[in-house]
Records
---
Amino acid sequence: MAGSGCRKEHHNGLMTKPVMVIENDFSQMLTNPLQSGANQTLTAQTTTVNIRGANIPVLGYQPNGMLGPSFRVNKGDVVNILLQNNLSEHTNIHWHGLKVPALMDGHPDQLANAGGTFRYQFTVNQRAGLTWYHPHPHFKTGKQVFQGLAGLFIINDLEEATLNLPSGRFEIPLVIQDKRLTNQGITYNPTAEEVMSGYMGESVLVNGIYSPYTEVSTRYYRLRILNGSNARLYNLAFSNNADMIIIGNDGGLLKNPVTVKEILLAPGERLDVLVNFNGLSIGTELFLLSKEFANGGDAQGKQSFKIMKFKVTATVTDSFTVPTKLSMVDSLPASSSVRSRVFDISNPMEHHGYPMNDGMRMRHRINNKLFDSSRIDESIKSNTNEIWVFDNSKGDEPHPMHLHGVFFQVLQRTGGRGSLIVSETGWKDTVLVMPGETVQIIIPFESNLGKFVFHCHNLEHEDDGMMLQYELI
Ligand code: C2O
Ligand code: CU
Ligand code: CU
């Protein structure tokens, strides 16, 4: 490859840099996206939202605001959702974290044209958890998500119900996203450097609200957190150093709760967290933060900033105790794998323009390949377990790797952080591979036949081509 017509440049100036976050005044009340049952029309449209007193155009799945309704369904429910595309370009919906048939999965080939529709029908056949949905048309995913199209999809089941976790207004969904706000709307025009780092915004929104606050009582809350950002990682922590008790991740409940003071959350990943405001006096204000972190490349982790404010406004007595046992999760032994596949995601020369220079700039690849929907990259036998290895050992950017159609377990991480992090037990659909890291996962491929994609969930990397296809046969 190297040398074959590639222009050798020692440095083409593609140095990525952080987009510094600008906090607002935390004076706007957090609202939760409306909850909805599983029969619904989602109308992708241009709508407006009021931010800092100005009405700005955004994309939404309903009038008046970005994001779509939060679906809440029970395991076993039948889902019937009509996507009405009122955009002027094609779109579709991927149900991120839902195991649905290939033709319902929002594959980049399965599109609703401008003015058209697509009907999604499937049965929810998986354990309780927080999943989400967003567009997936190749080259446009980053733009459509950044400008407002995404939503939550919560699954409940009986196992979860027996735990009596905080619910109702004590269960708060938090969709964390950074945006670039102007009075003309949410700007999306990544430069070559911003394709390298991923597109980041200066304004951090939660549930579509810039720097919000919420009022809480002195008791346990359950926070259902999604990093719905295109590229930004958050190192979540509380300003009073409160314990974050992690009870679940992408694929639902963990076996046992784990307590941390801070935790890294990459785009696409979810966390189910209990936090106890007991013992705080009325009037106390504290913040959910993102703290600085090391080794996130040139553009990430350089700043500590506030995401939202919690204001203690009522004293209550709370009889909730954190269950010591949450769920059954059988660990898959590495020995059950019938085959391993290694994926080089390092894109080693990404800041130097060679040897993978495609015309004007380098593109993000997996195993040196760009996405091509007419090519099956990996052909996999149903009902087998496989080990996949994502190798970012020579890379200098974080890559959250996501597989459609399956959940997996993380077996091992070498280099970088050097071990699994506590939220990586149980089931995952997205795993963060930091610069220098190699991560091994084990995937039970069941019998959901067909073509699915897997990709980096930095949406600029994905749109740039960092996505391949597997077919389960
Ligand atoms: Cu949320 Cu293919 O991604
Ligand atoms: Cu997905
Ligand atoms: Cu990436």
---
Amino acid sequence: MEVIVQPTPPDAARMAATLVAKAIRRKPNLVLGLATGSTPLMLYGELIRMHREEGLDFHHVTTFNLDEYLGLPPNHPASYRRFMQENFFSHINLSPQRTFVPDGMTQDIHRHCHEYEDLIVSCGGIDIQILGIGSDGHIGFNEPTSSLASRTREKALTEQTRRDNARFFATLDEVPHNCLTMGIGTILASHQCLLLAFGPKKADVVAAAVEGPVTSMVPASALQFHADAKFIVDEPAAAKLKLRAYYDYVLAHNPG
Ligand code: GLP
């Protein structure tokens, strides 16, 4: 686990975008796992800027999103497909047929989830998985007590997550109760994970995920089992980390 503390969210987003851009230049057909929520927006903004100003080419890139609300059609204003379309996909030169988001309207959940897993494998696995973190420690929509070996499946959202995400809907009642999400096992199978977290509200959960015990009560703590997981956080989100001085030392002495 590598913890990188940056002064501000734009600094953190630029660092994450630089890592993604380098990976795409090294491997043009990169398989990129994507997240929604407000946290990755600046990263997407920076990648869009790199595409426009520096010719970063997404033509051969494949993307897999972590999750989707069950029961929302792709054009629903709060669907994650629409979120990705508006905030990222429509601004770069990805091939639409290589952008995958779980289908919240699927009539056969079990089969769809299996096919999603198979598709990831058939593309060679996810090279870099972008992650945010929920205030309850969830990654994707893997709520506390999710199996650490779980694969793409249906999950029920906690009331806390529904309330946190109500800002994207007209009313709390409109927030779906269920979703489809890659599992923690799916996320752990990616070659590299980049988790971004900003702001004081994430400080407790970042500390629990990085320095606490591995527990399904804090699903992001499962990343301690990942061989290449980076937490890129801003100062307020780093505020509760006990080994902060050590992380800064490692970063300062890391030739990469
Ligand atoms: C949602 C998404 C998560 C995301 C989380 C945090 O629940 N399913 O993938 O990490 O929101 O959202 P935010 O970045 O807005 O804090």
---
Amino acid sequence: MLKESYQLLINGKHVDASSGEFFETYNPATGEVLAKVAKATREDVDQAVAAARAAFEGGKWPRMTGAKRARILNNIAELMRKNFDELVRIEVLNSGKTVSAAKGQIGQAIEDFELYAAAAITLGGETKPVPNGFFNYTVKEPVGVCGQIIPWNYPLMMAAWKIAPALAAGCTVVLKPASLTPITALILADLCHKAGVPEGVINVVTGSGSEIGPYITEHPGIDKVAFTGETETGKDIMARAAKTVKRVTLELGGKSPNIVFDDCDIEAAVDGSLYGIFYNTGQSCEARSRLFVHEKIYDEFMSRFLEKAARLRVGDPFAEGVHVGAVISEGQVKVIDSYVRLAVEEGAEILYGGKRPEGPEFERGFWYMPTIIGNVRNDMRVAQEEIFGPVVVVMKFRDEDEVIRLANDTIYGLGSAVWTKDHAKAHRVAAAIRAGIVMVNCPISAFPGTPFGGYKQSGFGRELALETLDLYTETKSVLSYIGSRPLNLFGI
Ligand code: NAD
């Protein structure tokens, strides 16, 4: 399934970019070129929007019954299952993540299509209570053409989070994958067509975010922008989308607190805290990158945490037993390393890692060691800014009030975790934390059906859940007069 070159997908056809240009996409574990990919221009975006517009305004998809759309969504899931191993292989090649991470994410992407297939059947309006003589019902209509812009950290899963609810609602799509990881989204779009999605409903434009991203965001032919990526990019998108009053959903960055109380199961908290930061090489929006440990157990917890961190295997993402794969790019390795240097300048102490791993297998590709930084204050930049790599900062706390204050002292509000055996305390803290997700004694942030999204500058709107469909639909209220006498409200 892996090809040497990939074209854009517009109106059901694979086409070159209007400029004829391509860009290269890499295997982060080797640094080698994996494939060349068409570099879309504004003209190509216009074509993609025109195709999505035509499919929305005159095509079958928005007019199809929910049951039929559901069948096609289930077909997509089925085809993804059939091609699972190859999708995993290509995802690993293009992202450098481990096979087990890719398997989990693609498994979830499949279930997302099944979730929204089930939802498509029952998606509809309500009747509302109104005074006698009137009758009101609401209709859920697709919001229109959706521009969907996704990041590189979960290439296929993010594509599924965007495409599946849009399709279930009857929308049409112009998808822009991250230029670092465009391949599996293109393959997914092909599978959608094979599964019965009509041409023009899903269009994929690959290329530079800074060149075509703003054009998508401002495009008058697009009704809604759904974006996942950095908070700064999200702010730009929100401002640009305002010009045409587009619907916007933003899934942005995070600096999620991971709170370990003295009454927790220490072993479980150690394992969960390692997974919470180093899964996906720390390149997760909800990575628990600020670790708060109660002072009473700090020494014991940290000695086990450091001992187990040293057992994490970094390396070839295809190798059995590897926990931490490659970093997405050399640029990202440099960002991570500069944050680690900054931490030292700020007075923090590197307790583990803090450098590129050494050895022949790391001579090629982009790598960084799992890194643990102690002696940190929550107001340091390293504790406030998203690093987006395998780096955790550790802080001690004294009591519940203090840790809640510190946990909330951030511009972000995406994930959070609490480790304690005291259920009352767990749920008190869950209530006090200003974040969209709280994990209690657990390092897993979501399953298909659970809402995923942020408070504060982590964005707004929830994905992965049934309520996501509200973000892909408009509600129309139809109010009729059904009285037997004519209504003469002016009385003339
Ligand atoms: P990014 O913002 O650099 O890029 C995301 C996408 O936007 C890419 O497709 C990119 O090409 C495009 N883009 C870049 N500039 C643009 C512009 N000016 N206008 C429109 N589009 C533009 O983010 P990234 O580095 O790809 O991804 C990492 C970020 O994503 C992290 O901040 C992470 O926390 C966030 N993220 C959030 C969630 C969530 O659900 N909250 C999930 C995954 C990742």
